[in-house]
Specification:
With about 600 residues, the protein is an alpha/beta fold. Helix 5 packs across helix 8, helix 11 (about 195-210) crosses helix 20 (about 495-505) and helix 15 (about 295-315) runs parallel beside helix 21 (about 510-525). The termini are far apart. The structure holds nicotinamide-adenine-dinucleotide, (2S)-2-hydroxybutanedioic acid and magnesium ion. Its cofactor is Mg(2+); Mn(2+).
Length: about 600
């Protein structure tokens, strides 16, 4: 069922080739003079050619010399490298925030240059504008705040959202990432400060999926916060009230969704970092009504499933062995349950049996192993609850150490949000795994919240493990020229392609079939050689290429389900007639590439 077709070896160079011939089309601007210089969408700083300076009323507002895009790029990178040099030896957090600030200043001033440096240096810059530094930025957001980015809808705006949405200056919006700030990474409720997450996710959309930055919208839904420290912080910028609950909460989200889809019926909304109860409830409420998905539940599930299938291959087994893998999942929240649901669907498809599909999966939360004896068993966790006594000696609430010792799992996967729960003892117990090559997925973010570090995993569980973490870690030097590979099991490998594929297919909804196609595409991306080395995911350097492939798979699944209504001039029939290769080319063609466009003024 899984087609592991090899992709062209030189993925990155192919991507570069596709964009090297980009000829910038004109860009319509309704402003003149300093208004253009102060608008990061249009600003080219010293890069405005003289003719354009004349046409747009810029002559005399800039120093006379015209600096090329390449020179501007080099100048920025030089400042960045000198900042790196000057902050050497300072605490990690201080350095990370200094790097974030310099990038953020460029983002605020000149988006084209910002996205080009981001794209070309994605491996170095993703950890700054995205996970893990974005977590630190959210924690300090009220103090770091200089200029607003995105939109803020608060509980005080009830009844006003339909008109407020028209305050957004862009006529078209393709991609919206929405949070209520209630579960920011593993950092808990950060209230309005969680806006950093939609901003970081949308930066990845631009860099990876080539969504035009003029068509993205980060949104914070501020319904209050239950974080006492923030409520007492005099600098806190959000509503100083406890979170709305129940119907009051849902009315706010309903009103926002209606407003968005009234103005932009073709937009896609990604729900991000909602606490579990609202993550599931809103997904259920809106997924058959609007084009939306929940990244923490659905994006994470696909990335984890691709990693789990890679693990089976790394163990020298065939994919048909996946249903026999014993997998212990630590964390029964939106992410953990999302992963298990998708894994169960995969097993059911492979075996043709629904009833026994979850039998090799074990689920723990903060109270230990979840069994059918659990009081107040969450209905979402119920399908994974074990029969007590199914494994001799495993009782309700058994500790992680007990479970690992008894089950001897092939895979230990953490989505608990708790740093260090894969303790030395737990990791050592994994040496008794039934597998010759057990896998550890410490997927919680940011770095401090990872269930274990890469170094500890290789040290305590053994050098033959496969390792993945949600936040980036350096590869581990195992001595004698051997390397312990670190994979980044992060939903960034899928959400951009899910959004892009949905957009360019004009899908009405985002279905399980489309998400499965995305996961299968990622799973089949890696060569056997890479997998044997323990490399489960591609390098982030090739994120545009991966995203195009994932986007094309999502598109084809939407076509197959007759949900694709077309995009721009391309209708559903044309989409249906495209070959696999043509679909990928079509997806690439729809990607925005950062290059200065001639600005044309519309009177
Ligand atoms: N790598 C990725 O792509 C990715 C994607 C989504 C979420 N995450 C991370 O996963 C974590 C959890 O996210 P979520 O949305 O599921 O959160 P959540 O709050 O919905 O769930 C957390 C779960 O962990 C359990 N838990 C807490 N302490 C525990 C302990 N000591 N032992 C075992 N279980 C414990 C809780 O009972 C709960 O079931 C966060 O840190 C988030 O950053 C990572
Ligand atoms: O934001 C990330 O890096 C992944 C994930 O969405 C998370 O909530 O941790
Ligand atoms: Mg998230």
């Amino acid at each position: 069922m899984w087609n592991l077709t090899r992709f062209a070896s030189s993925r990155l160079s192919r991507t570069r080739r596709l964009f090297s011939s980009v000829i910038p089309g004109p860009c319509i601007v309704h402003k003149r003079g300093t208004d253009i210089l102060h608008d990061p969408w249009f600003n080219k700083d010293t890069g405005f050619p003289l003719t354009e300076r004349d046409r747009l009323g810029l002559r005399g507002l800039l120093p006379p010399r015209v600096i090329s895009f390449e020179q501007q790029y080099d100048r920025f990178m030089e400042s960045y490298h000198s900042l790196e040099k000057n902050t050497k030896g300072q605490p990690d957090g201080v350095v990370a925030l200094a790097k974030w600030r310099i990038l953020n200043r460029l983002h605020d001033r000149n988006e084209t240059l910002y996205y080009r440096v981001l794209m070309d240096n994605i491996k170095d810059f993703a950890p700054i504008i995205y996970t893990p530094t974005v977590g630190l930025v959210c924690q300090n957001y009220s103090g770091l705040f200089r200029r607003p980015r995105g939109m803020y809808f608060s509980a005080k705006d009830k009844g006003e959202m339909m008109s407020m949405i028209y305050n957004w200056p862009a006529q078209h919006v393709d991609m919206i990432v929405l949070t209520d700030g209630s579960r920011i990474l593993g950092l808990g409720d950060l209230g309005v400060q969680g806006i950093g997450i939609p901003i970081g996710k949308l930066d990845m959309y631009v860099a990876a999926a080539g969504i035009n930055p003029q068509r993205v919208l980060p949104v914070m839904l501020d319904v209050g916060t239950n974080n006492q420290k923030l409520l007492e912080d005099r600098l806190y910028l959000g509503l100083r009230q406890p979170r709305l609950e129940g119907e009051e909460y849902l009315e706010i989200v309903d009103e926002f969704m209606e407003a968005v889809f009234t103005r932009w019926p073709k937009a896609i909304v990604q729900f991000e970092d909602f606490q579990m109860k609202w993550a599931f409830e809103t997904l259920d409420r809106y997924r058959k009504k609007f084009c939306m998905f929940n990244d923490d539940i659905q994006g994470t599930a696909g990335v984890a499933l691709a990693g789990l299938l890679g693990t089976v291959r790394a163990q020298g087994r065939t994919l048909a062995d996946f249903p026999d893998q014993k997998i212990v999942v630590v964390g029964a929240g939106s992410a953990g349950l999302g992963v298990l649901s998708m894994a169960v669907q995969a097993v059911a498809r492979m075996t043709g049996k629904n009833e026994t599909a979850a039998q090799n999966f074990f689920l723990l939360d903060k109270d230990g192993l979840i069994t059918k004896e659990r009081k107040n068993l969450d209905p979402a966790a119920a399908p994974f609850a074990k029969d007590p006594g199914q494994i001799v000696g495993l009782r309700e609430g058994a500790s992680l150490l007990e479970v690992v010792k008894k089950v001897k799992p092939d895979v230990l996967l953490g989505l608990s949000g708790v740093g260090g729960v894969f303790s030395e003892e737990v990791l050592k117990a994994l040496r008794e795994s039934v597998s010759t090559r057990p896998a550890i997925f410490a997927m919680s973010n940011p770095t401090m919240n990872a269930e274990c570090t890469a170094a500890d995993a290789f040290k305590h569980a053994g050098e033959n493990i496969v390792f993945a973490s949600g936040s980036p870690f350096e590869n581990v030097n195992l001595g004698n020229g051997k390397v312990g590979y670190v994979n980044q099991a992060n939903n960034m490998y899928l959400f951009p392609g899910i959004g892009l594929g949905s957009l360019v297919s004009g899908a009405r909804f985002i279905t399980d079939g489309m998400l499965q196609a995305a996961a299968e595409c990622l799973a089949s991306y890696m060569t056997d050689e890479e997998i044997q080395k323990g490399i489960l995911y591609p390098s982030i350097d090739s994120i545009r290429h991966i995203t195009a492939e994932v986007g094309a798979s999502v598109l084809r699944a939407a076509v197959a389900e007759e949900l694709a209504e077309g995009h721009g001039d391309v209708g559903p029939k044309e989409l249906a007639h495209m070959s696999k290769e043509e679909t990928v080319e079509y997806v690439f063609r729809n990607m925005w590439y950062p290059i200065y466009s001639p600005l044309v003024q519309e009177k």
